[in-house]
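Thread: quick sanity check before group meeting

JM: Hey all, I'm pulling together slides for Thursday and realized we never actually wrote out the predicted structure for the chain we discussed last week. Dropping the sequence here so it's in one place. If anyone has concerns about the input, flag it before I start.
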Amino acid sequence: MSRMQYFMDRVGKMDKKAMWKTTGILKKRSGKSRAWLMKDMLSCAVKYNAGYMDYKIAQMYKLNDEQRSTVITRGISNDIVRRMNNKEYWHYFDDKAEFNEQFKEWIPRKWIVVKEDTDPDELYALCRNQKEMIWKPLEGSSGQGIRKYQPEDWKDGGEAFKNRMLQDGTGILEEVVIQHPKMASLCPTSVNTCRIATLLGDKQKGIVYAFLRIGNGKVMDNVDCGGMAARIDLESGKLLTVGADKAGNTFIKHPITNTSIIGFQIPFWEEAKDMCLKAAQKFPEMRFVAWDVAITPDGPTFIEGNSFPSHAVPQFAAHYPDGIGILPEFRKFIDC
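JM (edit): ok, ran it. Output follows.
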């Protein structure tokens, strides 16, 4: 699909009301007129395949053309995924049960698929000695639909518990991941995961970026659920930047725990990188994968892998104070 075809397709699918609301927000932030913003948004859409959310999150109204050309916009990200990842292999990542099975070497927790023919006795045996369990839709993203269950929920036995979960559809029930105490010191309400993206490029292979996603009081650390993210230095495993959320708020210290974010050292960082690099070789047809990694007291473990990595976190303006985005990092691996 050409850039113009992509642009016209996005225009046809655009949420016009949401775009109008966004320009109202940016008018207050930037001091520029709505007419100027609308014209500039359209220009960025044509030149850089940027949607209005790209424009907002990356604060493109502040950037010059050179800086704008370094932002990984939705159109650019989609093109990278299409080029790098064979769609015939997506199901190994999109189906959570398949992912757990394929990458079980790095997933020690117990789990079961909850569907119509699931054995209720097997289900009850899994959860009866647990303090809590996590249920996830078999397919889905952005932390949508995830539930946390406790002994009160399965006290009436496996059949009743199964039927309750099936009201939300087919899913996977897992043991809760216990995160490393240091990771919990940032935010104890969620498992704070490292988003580590591997890229098997034509120029080189390795890790193209890493961010720590940090919760802000909810069960999930996902930025679509109110969480924040900070960029990780690939060499040291330390956080390089402030925390930033999707609304544009920034945090030097976590607002709940008061833990400093910049300079925070992630435990088992070398082990986490090594795990992702090894896993990336399992399906070489999937050349660009974003791995969600939890750090436990015993080391890193996978939560999931993403066949179509979100481009939102890697373009948060707060992570690039000089206005130079993350595309130069991708260009070390591939032409884009």
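AS: nice. The longest strand covers residues 205-214. Residues 110-175 form a domain with the Dna Ligase; domain 1 fold (CATH 3.30.1490).
JM: adding both to the slides.
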